[in-house]
Specification:
mainly alpha; disordered C terminus; elongated; 165 residues
Length: 165
Amino acid sequence: MDATHLHLVLSHFPIIGTIIGIVILAYGQISKNIEIQKVALATFILMAIFAIPVFLTGEGAEETVEKIPGISEQLINNHEELAEKAIWLMGVLGILSIISFFAIFKKLSFAKTITVITLIVSLGTFGVFAQLGNLGGQIRHTEISDGSYNNQINNDNPKAEHDDD
């Protein structure tokens, strides 16, 4: 398994895992169940760990796909720039989750507050990772892109839209 394959396989975990963690943490908050909250926080910590190899394999994946004809360098750059922000945000979520877990475990006075803050940060993190996944998908899946890049190719090369002529 090369870096590209690993990147594609692992990249779904932080997105899906974060939304699962949000649902679990929200339920734990509503039900005031500390054990459920701990499960959610552990999920966020695990997703922060998973995000590391996803980020580290991104460069190898880029080197593979940029050689494929018709791939937008701009989409790759947009994905890469957002990934650099997203990995830091996921790191913050992981650290907040560790602090929240510790605060709950030690029954510290700020445990509820830090856990609510963690929930809020997790919502933002999910939003950024969902956008990141969408940008990554657009690199190879033109059916989900807005078509502006494909229109640019067709305008630059009118023969491209009539290849079957």
